[in-house]
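Let us practice reading a record.
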Amino acid sequence: MATEHVIRVLPTDSPGLVRTAGHRVDDRWLRAFAAAVGDTREEFFDLDRGIVGHPVFPVCIEWPLIEQGAPGIELSTETLRLGLHVGHRIRMRAPLRPGEEVRTEARLHRAEARTNSALIVTEFRTTTLDGTPLVTTQVSTLYRGVRLEGGEITAPAEKPRPSGADLARIATFETDGTNAVVYSECARIWNPIHTDIRVARAAGLADTVLHGTEMLARAVSAATPGRTDLTGVECRFTNPVFPGMTLSVHAGRTGPDAIAFDVRAADGTPVLADGLLTFS
């Protein structure tokens, strides 16, 4: 008999609807992340001048709050493994800096039943210890073949993204079996489906898959040379990236304060789509 996969949305009076974690950000972690995504700009590496974190670095401090699934839901380990990271949105008030002590809260933002699937969106809010906002992130995970129980949780409609940009290729990079190993250790995001072929095969994949957030970070780096005023990053993850693929980053302005971008495989298939960078 086939296993029925279910995600149950917990009642609003349940304990544990908000998860929290504290971190002390250090320069070793910040520089390791930047090196893992191939970005060695001075602002990420020069300790004499002072460094800041890469714009996608917040994924590192958010991961411990979501690796067992979003808060506010109940699901089995087998159902958890069906989740696909399909969307990411980051809003930055200030970059993370070495020596900074921060607090991150995670809560369920959306729970939506779709045809033979469930969409779960987790929101993370990172602040200083005195409550000053630093970063807000929304991570979208799609669970295929999963039924949602307990009612949906809705959120305000998203603002439409700028459109009409002509995207030109601005960078190309190769991937191999070391990408996920290096990124896992430097980002401290450990999920065996990215590094263990046995786990990937058990999930029905021909090979391990690379982290979507590494591909996102590389695209952000390629599209923002010399820019230090980035305030927003968002995209959809549309296809998996396997070791050995050649990827290209395409970007184009949609206005004075926004750049659209995507990442494509060698045959033109998008692996990351509807990317948008916004600036102050």
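A brief commentary: Residues 32 and 46 are 13 Å apart (CA to CA).
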